[in-house]
Amino acid sequence: MTKTNESGKPVVRFAPSPTGYLHIGGARTALFNWLYAKAKGGTFLLRIEDTDRERNNPAAVAAILDGLTWLELDWTGEPVSQFSRADRHRQIAEALLASGNAYKCYLTSAELDEMRKAAEAAKQPLTIRSPWRDRDPAEAPKGVPHTIRLRAPSDGETVVDDSVQGRVTFANKDLDDLIILRSDGNPTYNLAVVVDDHDMGITHVVRGVDHLTNAARQTQIYNGMSWTAPVWAHVPLIHGADGAKLSKRHGAQGIEDYRDMGYLPVALRNYLVRLGWSHGDDEIMSSEQLIAWFDITDINKSASRFDFKKLDDLNGHYIRITPDAELLKRIKSMLPHLNFTALLELTVDPKAPPRSDVALARDVITQLPKVATGQDVCALFEAKGWDRLAAALPSLKERAKTLAELVTGALYIVTARPLALDDKAAKLIDAEAKAMLVALIPRLEACTSWSAADLETAVKAFAEETGAKLGKVAQPLRAALTGRSVSPPVFDVMAVLGRDESLARLKDQAV
RNA sequence: GCUCCCUUCGUCUAUCGGUUAGGACGCGAGAUUUUCAUUCUUGAAAGAGGGGUUCGAUUCCCCUAGGGAGCGCCA
Questions:
Q1: Which nucleotide has the shortest C1'-to-CA distance from A127?
Q2: CA distances from A487 to A239, A300, A326, A414, A503 (A)
Q3: A169: which nucleotide lies closest, measuring CA to C1'?
Q4: Nucleotide nearest to A275 (CA to C1')
Q5: Which label site among A82, A181, A274, A500 has the fewest CB atoms less than 10 Å from its CB?
Q6: Active site includes A248?
Q7: Are A1 and A191 in contact, with CB atoms under 8 Å apart?
Q8: d(C-alpha A67, C-alpha A259), whole Å
């Protein structure tokens, strides 16, 4: 690991702790880092903050990397494991000890608990200044393990000059002598972060504001080592629709949930970047534009609320402009992640925004017997030929906000005859409609070409001759062909289904 | 409790002391239409409250209220 900022180009990093998935807030932090690196021709590195061995979990690391990959945020080199650098962290702790900027502390956990309780009872803030800060280590009790604490300045102030938050000052009397090495000899988070950021040549630390006070503490460590602190940029947090911290009851938290619901990475990026950052009145921005326009100094200080409606709108836009071939590819890679029976058992807060993957699950379970997973649905499309779905996409993508909605709309392709009609569709096919279908079928059979345009001409001619409004003909057709009252234009549907299947479905209802 | 931060339409935001306070989502109305959408037109909708500074405050300062974050041998 070498310093790479001699070139004057920024080196940034995203440093998640492996807790199970890539949180949507973390995804935005990663996006800000990535954009900044791209914007300035810098480098985007990854580090896994896995010093807490109890929480170590390779699957969680994989989930984070998968999430970043799905979001199309690429990083340079291998992710750094913080745990693997513990020896180096210890070395720096020793150096701090040797220079007098740290000291051995023999306070036990029990004693600390007591101090905390006493302070709480007295309603006094507790700032830990260990008695061992100034005590002769020779007086140390034998056999009692010690921690190493930073000898933080006790007066004056520590300034965090932040690109987002501005100049934030902390009185040193309010800052603890933080533990940098645990009694078991393992480094703590703040030490590890400083050493790693220094060694990795990080020039800009872009992370959530929840780390703002850590920046003050870390500045003290930098000072103790006479190292130059990086440029700080503490970005605001993302809240749920109710203004509270994003949590399970707000629905999706992990980025894989957004993938499963059928959001496009490009749409999610566009949405996330606008939370706390803007470029004039621009709303829809290409990656090239984002890279050209983005700067951390333009990020706001206030937290923002997550709005699924706006994400949906953006996603709908990107679905409409995405070529069908790519849409098909994305559907194919999304579907296998879905488990419909599990989705239906998901207990979601009634106030949480509806999920389009859950809606899809509901439709699949009611319309397709013996189908439980996205893989099963894939198999059905495979059997019909994926080109059927591809042919349906142009008419489907106009009315879908997510890939899951796209699939929901395409279900008519794989439903089996005789179709189960939903209530509204059943109502549309009354005696009058049945008679109409009986009369119409021969006319359709006479069609030489089964294209949407020719079918439309034939049906319109039929409607005109019989004096029926087009709606009176089209609605029963739709119901018979798809089993629902809502679908893409019926002529497109017939073209997608093909002559034999379309006629068979119509005949099913014409009796 | 202590420390730090925040506060423009319901939501995301623009405004770098002088604007009819702009855009987007959502919502309402209308047009297009075989359903649902898409698309287009259009309407309603905001400077938390109170003090200053200033010829003039959304913008600068202070107070209040509300909200958030942090206060571990977690990260």
A1: B71
A2: 36, 43, 22, 14, 18
A3: B4
A4: B12
A5: A500
A6: yes
A7: no
A8: 9
Q: Which tokens sit at A453?
A: 């345009």
Q: Of the listed A117, A245, A248, A351, which one is catalytic?
A: A248
Amino acid letter, residue A486 = V
Report how far residue A265's alpha carbon sits from residue A74's, in angstroms, rounded to the nearest whole number: 13
The C1' atom of B10 and the CA atom of A263 lie apart, in whole Å, by 24
ipTM of the complex in this document: 0.96
Task: Report CA-CA distances (Å) from A438 to A357, A449, A480.
Answer: 38, 20, 12
Termini Cα distance of chain A: 77
Residue A276's region, left for phi above 0, alpha for psi from -120 to 50, else beta, is: left
> In this structure, what are the phi and psi dihedrals at residue A136, rounded to the nearest 5 degrees?
-70, 120
Predicted TM-score (pTM) of this structure? 0.95
CA-to-CA distance for A178 and A117, rounded, in angstroms?
18
DSSP, residue by residue, A42-65: -EEEEEE----GGG--HHHHHHHH
- Our measurement of CA A301 to C1' B64, in angstroms, reads 22
Give the angle subtended at the CA of A263 by the CAs of A348 and A304, to the nearest 5°. 70
> What Å value separates CA A166 and C1' B10?
30
List protein-proximal bases of chain B (any atom < 7 A from a CB).
1-8, 10-14, 22-26, 34-39, 67-75
Taking only the tens place, the pLDDT of each residue in A143-167 is: 889 999 999 998 999 999 999 999 9
pLDDT in tens, A192-216: 999 999 999 999 999 999 999 999 9
